[in-house]
Amino acid sequence: MRTSRVLITLVAGLAAVTTLSAPAAPAAPADGRPAPSRAALANPEQSTFFSTAAVDPGATVGAPAIGDNKEHGDLWPSCWSDDDHVYTAYGDGVGFGDTWHDIGVARISGMPGNLTGTQKATGDRVGRIWGDPAQYYRKPTGMVCVDGDLYLAVQDLKRGTLDHAPSATIVKSTDKGATWTSDRTTPMFSDEKFTTVMFLDHGKDNANSPDGYVYAYGLDHNWRDTFDPDPDPVDLYLARVPATSIQDRSTWQFYAGDSGGTARWTSSIDLRVPVLHDDRRIYRNVGTPGRVRDLSMLSQGGVVYNKALDRYLYTSWTEYTFEVYEAPTPWGPWKHFTPKDFGGYPWTHTKHGGYATTIPSKYISADGTSMWLQSNVCPCGGGYPAGDFWAYTYSLRRLSLTPAVPTTPGNGPDATRNLAREDGTVPVERATHFGTAAYNDGDTAQNEDDWNDERKTTSWWGYTWPRQYHLNRVAYTTGRMFGDGGWFNSAPRVQVRRDGVWTDVTGQSVTPSYPTSSAAGTNRTYSSTSTPPAATACASSAAAAAPRPSPRSPNWRSTTARGRLSDFSGARDPWGAVRILPSRATPPAGTRAAKGT
Fold first, then answer.
1. Cis bond leading into 512, ω under 30°?
2. What end-to-end distance do the CA atoms of the chain give, in Å?
């Protein structure tokens, strides 16, 4: 692997990683119920609630400590109980013991950086398998703590292919996870409906629930993209149940739509409507033969209420990305924000995505802006080589979010001021090859590139800020040129973000002229100037292109060596984000950006 890294100047709050096709017109369901309206099936809007969003490129802490290379397990849905411990369930691992089980429960004590774990129960002591044990096994999907008790949703999942979840039920523990009970003789949920159950994390012992209900989200058919003819999840459903009768299926109500801002509920699972519909697809054109592609967006993750921000956050994922949604109420409207692209395999210990993404409420800071996100990487999926269990445990990374608030730019002309070095600056990009989190650290000898094993039609590098600045110059310094790319195939253009929408800066010119070939050179600076805008985000992008890829290098890349935002001539309009893109969309080579001052 090349040890190049990037540094570019661009910006905040970027749009969805990939633009995808619109949903098909709704059809009448086979069960005869009324078809949802077009509005009900619309894909989510882009969120403008946050001005900056930053997630670490890889897990940094865990319980047990990440990197001990034991097969601890995955999934880890959790809840925060009245004894101040986090209780969690895992699949396919040894947990905090030494014996492998398909399901287990554990207690996590302490805070990130000082976590300890205790094994509580495993296997049949947790729950039963409803189907043929030769074909299905158990997987935990959601957990909630209420009145000192624990409730765990357990699904049947098809062995081997992991692509079919026909049933699920909820078990209860009154002794903090040591024993689990259910009086069911049939599953609570069946026929592939609502069989991936994710309880809404309403804080310690469900204390932040406003109405005495426990809320749960559900997916049909499967817990993630199936990669086969089985239906992929494109709808997220919501249910509620009195906290006193969680195991009584007859008391469950399902979200049935909105009436003047008020949620409507039904006891019939066949009359429910989704609170979130997202049928977009990403990674349609992957370079490496045999890699999964054409990925759906909704998967088993988690929904948490961030009380300080008064926001609900749904953390989803795809094979290569994190996908996050936010809403003001449990039923929405849900909007999409801050996709994080970790690129194609192989991953490293310092740069990797993961699955089963959750945000445990115990680890949310008092002001709500700092969180810890849990996710897992299994070497069985190709992200890591066989036998590498670095993040196959209760593994956490930082997630930081800054809500957007009205600001007025106060910076005057200053040719020496580099806005990429301002406090609160968060870099954004289409993707990073090596996970570099800073593009402006003074080291222009290093560079980053956007290789992600995808044949992209556009790419960008940029910055976002939690406040508005005046700016009128963006300096882009290239990274190393390679045989399979390193340059944009059309002149870079600068965009700024206004009211959540990325817009080309008017009247911009690039000096010197950008050659749109390898002649762009290594560590050369190209400056874009324009009528000075004000921004909270800035980005530069372009269609990056290069020679036709060889079998050794299946797609294109772009590089950056450094980025610099300088305000030296005053401005008229405020902005909070900027990014650099190509001037026209053609198959990209990918760009490299050098890191620098």
1. yes
2. 25
pLDDT at res. 540: 60
Pair of tokens at residue 462: 């940029």
* pLDDT, position 393: 96
Q: What is the largest CA-CA distance in the chain?
A: 74
Structural domain includes residue 453? yes
Chain centroid offset of residue 136 CA: 28
CA-to-CA distance for 304 and 325, rounded, in angstroms?
A: 11
Look at the block and give the residue holding tokens 């969680």.
246
Q: Helix (H) and strand (E) counts for the chain?
A: 0, 36
Host domain of residue 517: 414-594
Can you tell me the distance from the alpha carbon of 178 to that of 212, in angstroms, rounded to the nearest whole number? 26
The token pair at 422 is 């301002």
Q: CA-to-CA distance for 262 and 184, rounded, in angstroms?
A: 33
Neighbours of 250 (CB within 10 A): 7
What's the pLDDT at 488?
87
Is 346 found in the same domain as 467? Answer: no
pLDDT of residue 560: 60
The reported pLDDT for the residue numbered 581 is: 66
CA distance 592 to 544: 10
How many angstroms separate the Cα of 100 from the Cα of each of 64, 103, 156, 169?
15, 9, 18, 22
User: Looking at residue 594, what is its pLDDT?
Assistant: 52
Q: Pairing relation of β-strands 196-201 and 302-306?
A: parallel
Q: List, in order, residues 6 or more apart from 501 with CB less than 8 Å away.
A: none
Pick out the chain residues at pLDDT < 70: 1-40, 228-229, 531-534, 539-577, 580-597
Are residue 474 and residue 556 in the same domain, yes or no? yes
Q: CB-based burial of residue 585 (10 Å sphere; 0-12 exposed, 13-18 middle, 19+ buried)?
A: middle
In this structure, is residue 15 part of a structural domain? no
Contact in structure between 136 and 159 (CB atoms under 8 Å): yes
Taking a C-beta distance cutoff of 8 angstroms, is the pair 40, 257 a contact? yes
Q: Which two tokens stand for residue 196?
A: 């991936």
Other Cβ atoms within 10 Å of 156 Cβ, number: 26
Closest C-alpha among 536, 505, 516 to residue 402: 536
**Helix-strand-coil percent breakdown of the chain, rounded to 5?**
5, 40, 55
Euclidean distance between CA atoms 361 and 110, whole angstroms: 13
pLDDT of residue 597: 33
| Residue 378 backbone phi and psi in degrees, to 5 | -105, 130
Give residue 64's pLDDT: 76
Residue type, 98: D
Residues 6+ apart with CB under 8 A from 213: 240, 241, 242, 243
- Say if residue 443 is in the same domain as residue 337: no
Q: Is the dihedral of CA 347, 349, 351, 357 positive or negative?
A: positive
b/e map of 74-84 (b: 16 or more CB within 10 Å)? bbbbbbbbeee
- Rounded to a whole number of angstroms, the CA Rg of the chain reads 24
Residue from 536, 549, 539, 449 nearest 492 by CA: 539
Which CATH number characterizes residue 181's domain?
2.115.10.20
Torsion angle in degrees (nearest 10) through CA of 95, 99, 104, 109? -30
List CB contacts of 222: < 8 A, sequence separation 6 or more: 163, 164, 165, 196, 230, 231, 232, 233
Say how far apart CA 538 and CA 548 lie, in whole Å: 30
Domain count, the chain: 2
Q: What type of residue sits at position 211?
A: D
Can you name the residues that pair with 483 across neighbouring β-strands? none
